[in-house]
């Protein structure tokens, strides 16, 4: 509850975003690798699901999606695939806790993406078999290779 009335999800989300930017408004609180925290462009916000950009000294910015509620596992996985760090900011979180949770979320994101990159490359993946279903039976679909030979 906020000021004696219920907030809509959009209002809670806006409030969470504002609190994030207030928490990171002081550059003295930045870690050594972080140079700036900025709002995304309208295009980035709408299409890339980005609520904040953290610019780092190494170059590539970190995209942050701020949520005022806990995400389901499928939603977290989807955001990570898009290269966006999910961050949950609850109603009672202090500014220090928001900064700490941001750093934790970025570190987790980096660990997940590094592990997936080192465990398996695109060349190492096995090609999936393609199946189609007809009247309850499963058959393998054969494909032509470059030499027009059927596999």
Name its key features.
151 residues, alpha+beta, 4-stranded mixed sheet, 4 helices, 6 strands
How would you describe this structure to a colleague?
The protein is α+β, with helices and mostly antiparallel strands. 36% of the residues lie in helices and 19% in strands. The chain is built from four helices and six strands, in the order αβαββαβαββ. The chain has helices at residues 9-23, 42-47, 73-81, 95-119, and strands spanning 34-38, 52-56, 62-67, 84-88, 131-134, 137-140. A four-stranded mixed beta sheet has the order 1-2-3-4. A hairpin with a 2-residue loop joins β5 (131-134) and β6 (137-140). α1 (9-23) packs across α4. It is globular and about 65 Å long. The termini are far apart.
């Amino acid at each position: 509850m906020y000021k004696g009335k219920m907030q809509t999800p959009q209002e809670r989300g806006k409030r969470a975003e504002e609190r994030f930017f207030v928490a990171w408004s002081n550059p003295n609180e930045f870690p050594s690798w972080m140079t700036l925290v900025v709002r995304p462009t309208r295009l980035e916000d709408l299409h890339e699901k980005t609520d904040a950009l953290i610019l780092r000294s190494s170059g590539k910015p970190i995209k942050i999606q701020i949520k005022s509620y806990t995400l389901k596992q499928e939603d977290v996985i989807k955001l990570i695939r898009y290269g966006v760090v999910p961050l949950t900011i609850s109603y009672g979180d202090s500014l220090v806790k928001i900064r700490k949770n941001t750093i934790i979320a970025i570190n987790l994101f980096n660990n997940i993406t590094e592990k997936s990159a080192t465990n398996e490359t695109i060349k190492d993946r096995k090609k999936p078999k393609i199946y189609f279903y007809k009247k309850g039976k499963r058959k393998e679909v054969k494909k032509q290779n470059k030499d027009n030979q059927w596999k």
